[in-house]
Specification:
The chain is an alpha+beta fold. It is 27% helix and 7% strand.
Amino acid sequence: MSRHVPGPRARWAGAGAALLLLLAGLAILLAGYGTGMRLTPCWGGCRSGGELGTVLTALTPEQLSIVESGRWWFGHAHTLREGLGPFFNAQSCLECHDTALEQGAPRSVPGGAGRDNQVGPFHTQALHAGRTDPDGTFDGLIREGGEVRHQRTIQDLVPGCVLPPQTVPPDAPFVSPRQAPPLFGLGLIDAIPDEAILAQERAAKPDGVRGRANLGPAMDPFVNDHVVGRFGWKAEYTSVLQAVADQYFVHLGMTSPYEPMEITTPRYWVPNAPAPQISELPEPCRQALAWPYEANAKGEVVLALAEFVRALRPADPTPSPAAERGRQVFAETGCAVCHLPSYTTGPDPDAALANQPVPLYSDLLIHDLGPANADGIVAGLAHGSDWRTTPLWGLSHRPYLWHDGRFSAGRDGILGAIRAHGDEAAVAVERFAALDAADRDDLLAFLLAL
């Protein structure tokens, strides 16, 4: 299906529209005082420049108006009249992407979603599931609600509406709990040229490390200027805009010009197949979905959310002599082969993002981490045991580590995460295990300072 929508490089056009959007958001904010809406007026912007949640400098007043609108929508508890549901996992982005005052870090809650969406052993907010079809292709449960299972429905909000949440079908063997990834610094990653990542893919690597870019038509469903995936646990998203639009739809049920197909039954729209009808839902559910949704009809909210996320500045490291020694040990063990210390952004219309260093400690490639880490989920060119090299910047601000949050933050959790690497990372893990106590402590000090 062709989607003619604004690309991320045409974001700032129409300052008047941006200001109107901001005023509309403020009007809804004021109205919310009488409805029990969750209000947090001071996210990020009330703190000094180096802290998480603050935005990049060098933004124009027009850009800041869009960013501040996006900040508001990020924390807003969405309603049925705004298009929430019918299937969803959260009512706001802030439900998952918040740790106290740290705007970009994920809020993880004990327990993840299991096969029946009940609490499991990990610190996660989402559950992915799928199966392999007889022809060997991956099926992300496209006819049964999609790969991401929805743990809530509008029946929680509408008396008399009976619409059960989705469970994992018995014949779907792949179940992958996921924690929400941190959001700080994503604008800089978005501005890294594709060619820089592809050059890293082509570069010779030691120790059996391979690394592949996740790219292809499935990775570029929007009109934008990336074909190389860089966001998501498996690098399945090519831009912040693509990731935000998809997650806004998948987890809140919010449609937009970027994701226009509503889920009105437990089945997604399938290309060239009959559309699921709202008449299939019980009457109270149908009535709740009958409101005209104006807030995001032209995609303004998605654009504002994407610009807010793009504007979040990365975490600043905490230097120390031990951390500096550990940085050298990190390189000597081979960790930096995949956890590449830095990229540089290219020319960009946004001065805050143009020609900037990006010390993210990731090559943004997907790597095979071995069968012990396989979840069976396929995303573009990433197979079940393939994972994007997780950027390490801001590591000290994360409450849990690994895609499923199995490791707690701190020294012991980092040790567990290092040891869990397999296959392409096996040689580096062996070198780490052979370090003496002093070098190991320095390497951990380096990671804990990021």
